[in-house]
Amino acid sequence: MELLLGTITGVIFGFLLQKGQVLRFEKQVGFLLLRDMTIIKFMFSAILVGVVGIHFLNDLGTIDLEIKDAVIGAQVIGGLIFGIGWAIAGYCPGTSVGAFGEGRLHALWAILGMIAGAALYAEAYPTMKKTVLTWGDLGKITIPDVVHLNQWIVILVLVVVILAMFNWFRANNI
User: What is the pTM assigned to this prediction?
Assistant: First the structure.
């Protein structure tokens, strides 16, 4: 059943990626050059749906939300590698697979880079586990923990800020 639900969710997400035009190389590069905010609008929409959905299901007891350790070193280095790969390839992992599925054969290079990066990470993991993955380990913290507010207040602020950004993008035609 989990595989079926995963497949259905993947198909829906792929459909939304395609309909949102975020699989287009021009949209990816337009965002990286800060000329087209289609990608950021799509990502923030997914974040809003995800954060509200996950916390709602957690509050209902349907799922168990497991907080991972916040490790600054891992986030900074991982973010840099992800960003550099995105800038070079013109695709992030999800959009590269979707673009390839649409027939954009050049996206295969991004997919191969992603696979090579995963293999390199697997090889480097034992060393990184003792170094990078310990730098700035803050433990299992969340933004609501840090600001000492109920999670739903923080989520409401996030929703308002993102909706204000969407409005600003629309008003400025970006």
Answer: 0.81
